[in-house]
Amino acid sequence: MEDGRCSFFLTKKKRFCANSTLKGSQFCGNHNPKTEDRRVPCPIDPSHFILLENLEAHTRKCPLYKQVLALKSQSFYTKGINAGVEDEDGDATLSDPVPCTFNASESISSEYNILLEDSEGNELSVISSGDLIITSDMKRHAIYKMSIADFLALLSKIKSIHQAIFLNIEVSSVMPEACSRWLKKELKQALPFQEKHVLQQASILGNMEKFGLLQMPAGPEILEPGHNDSSESHSTTPAVVEFGAGRGYLTHMLTSCYNIKKVFLVERRSYKLKADRSLRQEQDVILERLRIDIEDLNLEAVESLSCVPYLAVGKHLCGPATDLTLRCCLREQYHNNKAVQSLSKCNLRGLALATCCHHLCQWKSYINKKFLRNIGVTKEDFHAITWFTSWAVDADHGSTLTDVIDRGLHLPNIDDAGLRGTDVESLVKNMKDLDRAMLGLICKEIIDIGRYMWLQDHGQDAKLVKYVSSDISPENHLLMAKCRNPV
Q1: Continuous segment of H or E residues that includes residue 252
Q2: This prediction's pTM
Q3: What span, in angstroms and rounded, lies between the C-alpha atoms of 115 and 107?
Q4: Domain spans of the chain?
Q5: How far apart are alpha carbons 51 and 58 in whole angstroms?
Q6: Domain 177-483: top CATH class
Q7: Are 47 and 36 in contact (CB under 8 A)?
C-alpha cells in the first residue's frame, strides 16, 4: 500500500483501494467507516451506494442517468402499467391467515431506494419507489418464526388446496418436423447454445403447432436458417413478440423453422452475442428490439405493431414476468370489470409462455389473486407457497423426481418422534428430500393453475403442459392460450 492511499482492502480485486485518503483519515471518502451508516443505494443504479446528503446531486450525474432518461422517453413506456395492485379484487379473504408476519420497517421512502432490516438488524431487501419486494430471505425468515403447529397446518392446507383444484398436467414433449434440422444438428453454422436448450425450444414450438398457434411451413422441405423465402404464401403469418427475449435464440429457431418475418424482442437488459444480426441478415427478418421492463410496456403504443396480428412467446419468464406479460397482452381482458379507455390496436392471436422461478413471484403482480382468495390462500400463504417452490428445483432431476410425481406428499406429524421441542427450521432441514420436492411441485402447480384459470375466465382457450421432462429442465411448465372467438 502506497503512502497517501486508502487503507481499505478490496477482497474481490485482491488489492488496496487506490484512491487518496481524506485529511486526517486512513480511508478515502468511499470507504470511510464513519460514513457507512449514512449510505443508501443509488435510486438509478442500486449496485452502488452514495452518502445520503449527496443523493440529490448524484442522481443528476449518475452514469446511468442518461440511459434511464432514454428508456423513459420511449413512446411505449408507461410506468407500472402492467404492475398490478395489492388489492385489485377487494380486501376480503375467505379464511383466517396463518400467522406469518414480516418484520420490516414501515418508514419507506417514496422517492429513493433504501435498505430494509429485520428486528435483528439483518439486511432483507431493497425498496424501489415505495414498493416492497418480498425476497426469499424475508419469506424464509417469516416461515421459520412460525410455531410448529401453524407450520404443519399450513402444509396440510396447501395439500388440501392442491387436491381440490387438481389439474392433470400432461407431459407433452413434442419435437416437430419443422425443427428437424436443428434437432439433428444439420445446420451450416454452429448452434449458439447447448443441446438441452434446443430440445426445450423445439418442444415449445412443437406444442404451439399442436395447439394450433403455428402452422407447418408450406413446401416439400423445411427451410434452414439463411434461406430467404419471399413468397406471398407467408404474408399472413402473424408477427411474434418474445418477452424476456435475452439474446433472442428462441426467436432464432422460431423464424427459421416457421418462416416468421416480423419479430419484436422485449428485454430490459443489453446482451452480447445476440441472434439479431443473423435474424436480420441471414433470415431477412424485420426485427425491432424494445428495451424496456415488461412492467412498463404499453404494447398498444408500439406503432409498428398497431393492427398487426401477433403471437406472444416467452421462454423461462422468471417469477412475476409471466403475470406482467399476461397483463401486457390482455389488457382489455384484465380490465373487463372496469372502464376501458380505448379499444386495443393490437391483435393477439395466441400466447405460449414457459414459466420459471416461481420463488420470485410477488403478491402485487400475481394475475389471479381472486382465485387464490376463493380457495382460501392469503397474502402470507402466497409468500410461503412461492418460497416452497424452490424445493422442486433443488431436487435430483433424474429418477428421483420421477419417483416424486408417482407418490403422495407425506406430511410430518406433530407427534412424530423427535419433533416435540424443535423449531420450524430444524423440522424443514429434517424433512425427506422427496417430501420437500413434492411440496415444491405442488406449490408450482397451484401458482400456474391460477394463471391457467385466469385465461379460461377471460375468453381464452388455455392449456398447461409439461413441455420437457424434468431431467432436461425442472422448470418445465408451458402455458398456452388462444382466443375462443377470434375476430
Answers
A1: helix 249-258
A2: 0.78
A3: 11
A4: 1-31, 177-483
A5: 9
A6: alpha beta
A7: no
